[in-house]
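Hi R.,

Here are the chain sequences for the assembly we discussed:
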Amino acid sequence: MSKSYRHGQILRIIRSKSVHTQDELARCLKTIGLATTQVTLSRDVRELGLVKTPEGYREITHEETGPAFRLLAAEFLHDIRAASNLVVLKTAPGHANSVAVALDNEEWKEVVGTIAGDDTILVIAPDEKTAAHLCKRFHKLLEGR
Amino acid sequence: MSKSYRHGQILRIIRSKSVHTQDELARCLKTIGLATTQVTLSRDVRELGLVKTPEGYREITHEETGPAFRLLAAEFLHDIRAASNLVVLKTAPGHANSVAVALDNEEWKEVVGTIAGDDTILVIAPDEKTAAHLCKRFHKLLEGR
DNA sequence: CATTCTGTTGAATAAACATTCACTTATGGA
DNA sequence: TCCATAAGTGAATGTTTATTCAACAGAATG
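And here is the predicted structure of the full complex:
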């Protein structure tokens, strides 16, 4: 009954048939012996990066982050922190600028602009909520590096 | 204040910034002088084929229907009707079989199977709701042919 | 062991979204 | 003109999804 097993089953199900609601997905899982609730599935949907389309839930080709920023971040990005509508990124000394430039080039809609010092980048988001989302996105970028 | 103008503005907005809710979208439209409600936007989102992603609303590359079925349908498909969990397609006499074969090859998840006669195809959907959805999808296919 | 921390989950609830119904407006015949 | 029909809309309401909060389990630490 592990979470990752459930995730796998969810993917298998939505690949094989149209599932239009999370409750429906819960019923599908039940038929293979996995008892869950809509609450859990709401989280699973987010974690798996699924989106709801008129044809049912689908995996979305995760708009890939360009390699430049990804590589630089993997190498030099040390800390990520949200502060109101800002995200503060800490880098290795002297590398803030190059990382910020790479990030600018990504042209993420969530990023209004960046300011780079020596080892700190201030990423300006339009609002607090977006900043929090950005934060997660940065963390995700570093997973498993 | 036409609907199609609003649709255009909606696309422009979601291409340029992250919009996470329909209420937020309504506020964006208001700033350019378009007063709408969430109700209307719910319909617009569906009509424009947008999906909600963690990064905001997005146009989804409409999983293209293969050309074979599309072309055959444009040429020979005459009527579309839902009946319980079935969709009954009427074609030009003698063409039901070829259209059905092309449809089978599409491997739509909503289609359990098809049975073709001379000028009639029975499309079997898993349930009534899916049949209704299929119906719309067929109709959409024929728009503007 | 106790304790703290982290991750997972469900119940209750809030938020977001979709649908129904009634109304308006425009259009196109009789 | 008058009626019928169709398209578009919003208010109210129903459905679906997300979040909050509390509980619990297991791992790490004193």
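The mean pLDDT of chain B is 83. Residues 3, 36-40, 43 of chain B lie near DNA strand D (CB under 10 Å from a C1').

Let me know if anything looks off.

Best,
T.
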